[in-house]
Amino acid sequence: MDTLSDLADGVVNGDESKVSALTAQAIDTEGSAKRILDDGLIRGMTIVGERFKAHEIFLPDVLMAAKAMYVGLGLLRPLLIEENVDSLAKVVVGSVQGDLHDIGKNLVGIMLKGAGFEVIDLGNDVSPSRFVEAAKEHDASVIGLSALLTTTMPVMKSVVDEVRSQGLGDRVKTIVGGAPVSEDFARKIGADAYGFDAANAVDKVKTLVGKN
Amino acid sequence: MNDTSTVAAAELIPSRGAVLELQGIPRGHVVPREIESLCDQAMALFVQTAEPAGIIKRVSAAEFATIYAGEGRNEPQTPVAEIFPRADRLALIAVTLGPSISREISERFQSDDLALACMLDAVASVAADHLAETVQQRHVDRRRELKEIDQEARALRYSPGYCGWHLSGQRALFGFLDPEPIGLSLRDSFLMDPLKSVSGVVLIGAGWIHAFDNAYPFCTDCHARGCRERMDVLGQG
Ligand code: B1M
């Protein structure tokens, strides 16, 4: 197996020390940080995502793989900056105002990062204006909103409305998700997409930014 | 009178199966050793960080009728509306695992200790329900001891946010119960702070009072199986 396939394998198995050693080795031998990222780390996480979707592995496996990937990413980051490598796109995520539930949102963020997106996580209890300001500040292409209560779902509409009223609708897309949220609700409030789980959110965000 | 109490975190440690199930792993599925050990670590961390406390207070059926009506946003017909007038005794309940456990979960996420953070979250979620069950059971045992309820009486808990009881019902429930002494507060969105908390009404009476058909319009969209399982345990009678 070549180094990058081995690296992908290390990610799949959540083997942090292997990922760390192979990323360091690849930096010395491969030259291109972008290649190490795409063909090693992201490839590993893509396999993980597919196995997760096929129910071959479960959430803890995905999270152990993601942690291993982050170890590699940490080593690679200075080189990616040096090489001016852009992420797939920037995504602002958060749980909406009034909601402290953030596990689902965290999982969406982890999977997006694993797929090569830059994630700006605003945490929980985030006001509509903070979402929109952050999207402008970071020049994000997507805002991802999470809500676990029916009483916090209306905040999602406020964010979507604010994006439109500030004239950002063309360049900032919105995706919503969370236990009580549905495709139908997303359509009704004018959100650009609905993600039923973290893996599905990644597919939808890729479509939104035309990277599918 | 309000009855506040604390429970040792060690008493609330859930089964591995229940924790893994909340992480999407089917019961009985054999998991790798790493996941088992992650689960054990999360349980140990839970014992260190959880500060379980609860409050329970007797309420009359007339008082509860007003509390249940809440802000007028319940579904037109609900199981609780049918069951509570048949109960011999009612009590409002709120329990919390305290703020430290949520902080611990967030910090673990922030430091990329992802799998452990998520496992700890699942442990705490299952334990929060156990805590409610424990506080409720203590209350029922005491009532039995004092011969205030029939020895055969069965108690079940119903919560705002389930079975047509609108989440906004939390406001009236909190108004009556005043769970501030256990560090619980309610946000405008009706979310309890700290997050790992549970509230509801405990309805005590003969087993049959808790039986209902899952034929309310909202049952169609509901995937929760808890009500059916509970009725099965009671043998509907
Ligand atoms: C940006 O794009 C995207 C795309 C996808 C996105 C996304 C964003 N965000 C999320 N997703 C999606 O991807 C994620 C990963 O796959 C998923 O994220 P989730 O966050 O949904 O999933 C997590 C990884 C795991 N899921 C969870 O942790 C939540 C599971 C359920 C069963 C649940 C649990 C475990 C708990 N709860 Co409760 N709880 C429920 C939940 C019902 C359910 N089936 O979801 C829900 C949320 N709870 C509810 C209720 C009512 C309550 N709970 C309460 C308490 C609890 C526990 C403490 C026992 C426990 C902890 C909750 C927690 N998360 O910390 C109470 C509130 C607590 C509070 N602080 O106020 C209480 C109010 C009950 C009470 N009166 O005590 C319901 C809300 C109903 C409503 N009307 O709003 C509820 C939907 C259950 C139900 N009725 O079916 C997807 O939704």
Model description:
The complex is a heterodimer of chains A (212) and B (237). With 212 residues, chain A is α/β, with parallel strands linked by helices. Chain A has 9 helices and 5 strands. Chain A has a 5-stranded parallel beta sheet, with helices on both faces. In chain A, helix 1 (3-12) packs antiparallel against helix 2 (16-30), helix 2 (16-30) packs parallel to helix 4 (59-82) and helix 5 packs across helix 9 (198-208). The radius of gyration of chain A is 18 Å and the shape is globular. Chain B has 237 residues and is an alpha+beta fold. Helix content of chain B is 42%, strand content 16%. Chain B has 8 helices and 7 strands, in the order βααβααβααβαβββα. The model of chain B has no long low-confidence stretch (mean pLDDT 93). Classes of the chains: A alpha/beta (212), B alpha+beta (237). The A-B interface holds A 14, 58-61, 63-64, 66-67, 70, 97-103, 106-107, 110, 149-152 and B 20, 23-25, 31, 34-35, 38, 102, 105-106, 109, 112-115, 117-119, 121, 161, 167-168, 187-191, 193, 195.
Query: Order of strands across the biggest sheet of chain B?
Result: 1-2-3-7-4
CATH class of the largest domain in chain A: Alpha Beta
Biggest interface pair, counts: A-B, 24 and 30 residues
What order do the helices and strands of chain B follow? EHHEHHEHHEHEEEH
Strand content of chain B: 15-25%
Bound molecules: CO-5-methoxybenzimidazolylcobamide
How many helices of chain A? The count is 9
Distance between the termini of chain A: 28 Å
Distance from N terminus to C terminus of chain B (CA atoms, Å) equals 31 Å
Class from helix and strand fractions of chain A: alpha/beta
Q: Name the CATH architecture of the largest domain in chain A.
A: 3-Layer(aba) Sandwich
Measured as a percent range, the helix fraction of chain B is 40-55%
In terms of per-residue confidence, which ranges of chain A show pLDDT below 50 for 5 or more consecutive residues?
none
Gyration radius over CA of chain B: 18 Å
Mean pLDDT of chain B: 93
Unreliable stretches covering 5 or more consecutive residues of chain B: none
CATH topology of the largest domain in chain A: Rossmann fold
Number of strands of chain B: 7
